[in-house]
Amino acid sequence: MAEYLEKNPLPFPMLIDEDRQVMKAFEVYNRLSWDAYRLAHPSAFLIDPDGQVRYSFVASNQWDWPRTQPLADELAKLRQAEVESIAESESSQQWFPGT
What we know:
two-stranded antiparallel sheet; 3 helices; alpha+beta
């Protein structure tokens, strides 16, 4: 995975949970069931820069996957908030130089 990410960089951090600590902390670890052994349930989490979970999906089985549109919608909201924050910051600097 590290080699893939080196060749195909992403604009956000990618978590590789080799020791299964994060999947256990997020309660998606599937120790043993009819469709999995020591795997995570298919899941996706979008965590904003402040550490708030903005989107989460945890499947009930290995054949259920997160839908891309709700995740894309949340990413768009985060991006819009970032753009507005930058614009607001730049606007306040025009009125108060040096801040």
